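Researcher: Here's a chain I'd like modeled. Treat it as a single chain, no partners, no ligands.
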Amino acid sequence: MSLKQLTSEWQQWLRENVARGCSRESLLPLLVQGGHTPVVAERALSEALGLAVPEIPPAPAPGPLRPEPLLDSNQCLMSDGQRVRIAAVLDSPQIVLYENLLSADECEAMIALAETRLTRSTVIDEQLGEARAHEHRSSAGAMFQRGEHALLSRIEARLAELLQWPLERGEGIQVLRYAVGGEYRAHFDYFDPVHPGSEPHLRGGGQRVGTCVMYLGEVEAGGATRFPSIGFEVRPKRGAALYFADIDAQGQPDVATLHAGVPVTAGVKYIATKWLRQRPYRV
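Model: Modeled as a single isolated chain. Structure tokens:
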């Protein structure tokens, strides 16, 4: 079916180049540059090559496909008393910047909690689905189970209320520390279903539908979160949080969410990341 999602001109172009013996590696980026999403491009290419077309897990039903953040006013008073301010909103991709999501004491406590278990950060291998160190990500991280600590439980409950997404549909919080030179090059948080390594992660909780990056401190220079495709950048501010939906309104991976952690050039950057899933998540 994905081949039929291309225009007749693109279908003809693809078939001609496959017949000429062009490789998958050479054709895929051209399809993406032509305006097709990576999912559609990969599935159409697989079909043209006569290979098995990767399955896309169905969206959960009933209910919304992705979180619906509270946006009725410029401030949101949480049930635990925290008054969160909305600093910026973008519709496509869906991005919300919050201030005062965390108190100064909560930021310091989370940093102290993480310092007891920081290890080298990893990325997910696209082919094997395993976590491994990679030169594109130079940070130290501490992973926590959901509800592992009273502090984390309070913050997770606040996020569930603010983003209107069930608590059980979230991964545990990950705290990251970036020293000078530390960065995370441009990447997506969603699991691309065309990669074999995504399958076990999609099976356990479904797609990542939202990301929340909480800034635990100021950074002297560098360390911003940058979305290169849309020319948008957020610089760390203690207690602030950046939320963005990893999928679009139709439930498909949103390529506009390509983002990067800009290298830290002075100071130390601490953030806490929370990923939200389609379905209840269990480790």
